[in-house]
Write a structure and sequence with these properties.
This protein is an alpha+beta fold. Helices cover 33% and strands 24% of the residues. Strands 8-10-7-11-9-12 form a six-stranded mixed sheet. Strands 3-6-4-5 form a four-stranded mixed sheet, with helices on one face. The chain has a two-stranded antiparallel ribbon with strand order 1-2. Helix 1 packs parallel to helix 4 and helix 3 runs parallel beside helix 4. The longest helix is centred in the middle third of the chain and has 18 residues. It is globular and about 75 Å long. The chain starts with 13 loop residues before the first helix and ends with a strand.
């Protein structure tokens, strides 16, 4: 008679899953807000609908952190990518003027490691606390044959709200609006496939080696947490016209999403020097300038399109929070194009 089979012999460890749930409970509970209903461990998370605006509209988004995960795995540092995930999603809905309500996460392993789950969820919880949103639920999956240990995948889902009459976007942008650039904290969560190849193949560095031009390690530099701009921008949501979160596609591939078809955005690239990280990657990889601006944020994590009278207030707010901000151009009559000037 053949040996008995059980779930664990097929690659799924229920005991490890139970251990992971116990480990993350305190992190999840630490994020709960006044709108949260129900208790940890329910089949569905519950949240009371907001009542502080006349016509509330829910704004939802989903994202991941891409191959930044490989840096976390290679360096065995898993507490930052969860924080990245929340901040990225917060910024995505912020550009429409939305304030986050709650967040859900999904982590999938080839072989579930409770300690790694705890680190990831601790990072998610830190991001939720920073942005005032509840970690309302999530899923931890063990999927042998789909992922090869120690690899895992991570995704997040956010829901926020905004008054229907206060939604930001291209329809509000006017000729002559100022482009206010808000400094990024590094690569954020985009361009890692190219960055990792440059670091590994051209620089021939591991995650524990010192990054060129820096006193920090490769892991320190590449795992810097994706910055949230909610605290800076929340006081100005009723006064600015639009925002663009500079993610995959860089400034040209994201700023255009905030433009009407009647206006261009003229970005004066001489107003800032890309941080050393980007210059080192460009030099070591022999990457064309235009490709750098498509693959990376080049030191700009968010661009705010604001009336002249508001631009300086946004810059002052960012500066007060330790984030560099500057005037990086204007809108003008055109056809919805982003022009990097000088080329």
């Amino acid at each position: 008679m053949s040996d008995r089979l059980d779930y664990r012999s097929a690659g799924v460890d229920i005991d490890a899953a139970d251990d992971a749930k116990k480990r993350i409970k305190a992190h999840v509970v630490s994020t709960l807000t006044a709108g949260t209903r129900g208790e940890f461990g329910g089949f569905g998370g519950m949240f009371r609908a907001p009542t502080d605006v006349a016509k509330p509209v829910l704004v939802a988004s989903a994202d991941g952190v891409g191959t930044k995960l490989k840096v976390a795995i290679e360096s065995d540092r898993h507490d930052t990518v969860g924080h990245d995930l929340v901040n990225h999603c917060v910024n995505d809905i912020l550009v429409q003027g939305a304030t986050p309500l709650f967040f859900l996460d999904y982590v999938a392993f080839g072989a579930l490691e409770p300690a790694v789950v705890e680190q990831v969820v601790a990072g998610v919880a830190a991001g939720c606390r920073e942005n005032g949103c509840a970690l309302l639920g999530g899923e931890t999956a063990e999927m042998p044959g789909v992922y090869t240990p120690p690899d895992y995948d991570l995704a997040g889902f956010i829901v926020g709200y905004v008054d229907e009459d206060a939604v930001l976007g291209a329809s509000r942008v006017e000729d002559g609006d100022v482009l206010v650039a808000l400094e990024s904290s590094g690569l954020h969560t985009n361009g890692f496939s190219l960055a990792r190849r440059i670091v590994a193949d051209r620089m021939q560095l591991g995650t524990g080696d010192r990054f060129p031009g820096s006193d920090d390690t490769v892991a320190d530099v590449l795992l810097a947490v994706h910055r949230s701009y909610l605290a800076i921008m929340k006081p100005f949501l009723a006064r600015v016209h639009a925002m663009s979160h500079i993610t995959g596609g860089g400034i040209p591939g994201n700023l255009n999403r905030a433009l009407p078809v009647t206006l261009d955005a003229i970005v004066d690239t001489s107003t800032w020097e890309p941080p050393s990280l980007f210059r080192q990657l460009q030099s070591a990889g022999n990457v064309d300038r235009a490709e750098m601006f498509r693959a990376f944020n080049m030191g700009v994590g968010m661009i705010v399109l604001a009336p002249e009278r508001v631009a300086d207030d946004v810059i002052e707010s960012a500066t007060a929070r330790g984030v560099r901000a500057w005037r990086a151009g204007r809108t003008r009559r055109g056809s919805g194009q982003v022009v990097l000037n000088p080329e």
